[in-house]
Amino acid sequence: MEFNIKEYIRDIQDFPKKGVGFKDITPLLNDHQATVQTVKALKTLLGDQKIDRVVGMESRGFFFGTLLAAELGVGFIPVRKPGKLPFDKISEEYALEYGTDILEMHADAIKPGERILIHDDVLATGGTAEAVCKLVERLGGEIVQLNFLMELSFLHGRDRLKNYEVKSLVSY
């Protein structure tokens, strides 16, 4: 039987606010075999490219980012919101629909020349992923690919990431 990740992603209407259709991955996380198949599928997106680290964004990017890093036998780097990382850090401000936000990464997380896979659960407008790319490149990392569980193609986030290889398991 072929694995279909969409069967494990449920739609929640009007969350986190009215008018938003949220893609809930908790059913996927709750099913061991679906989780294992998802990690294998994410690894397949990478092909035979070699990487040194997986970078994952807070917070849903941590779930499969850490599992993928373990599967690949490499380290995992968390990117977090301000005030969550305890050591020297660099930060990147990025635009939201209304206002701005900031992401941070430890300043010693990446050595120049390391090959980086950036992972998150969803590619929406691309603002978060673009900010993470800037953090990685400021530390001298080479971005091999960005991968996502799902892409909300109607939001055109891929357009902001046109200088990078971008892959996702499913598109809506």
UniProtKB/TrEMBL annotation:
It catalyses: AMP + diphosphate = 5-phospho-alpha-D-ribose 1-diphosphate + adenine. Its EC number is 2.4.2.7. Keywords: Cytoplasm, Glycosyltransferase, Purine salvage, Transferase. GO terms for molecular function: adenine binding; adenine phosphoribosyltransferase activity; AMP binding. One of its GO terms (biological process) is AMP salvage. Residues 43-150 form the Phosphoribosyltransferase domain. Pathway: Purine metabolism; AMP biosynthesis via salvage pathway; AMP from adenine: step 1/1. Pfam families: Pribosyltran (PF00156). GO terms for cellular component: cytoplasm. InterPro entries: Ade_phspho_trans (IPR005764), PRTase-like (IPR029057), PRTase_dom (IPR000836), UPRTase/APRTase (IPR050054). HAMAP family: Aden_phosphoribosyltr (MF_00004). Catalyzes a salvage reaction resulting in the formation of AMP, that is energically less costly than de novo synthesis. NCBIfam families: apt (TIGR01090), PRK02304.1-2 (NF002633), PRK02304.1-3 (NF002634), PRK02304.1-5 (NF002636). This is Adenine phosphoribosyltransferase.
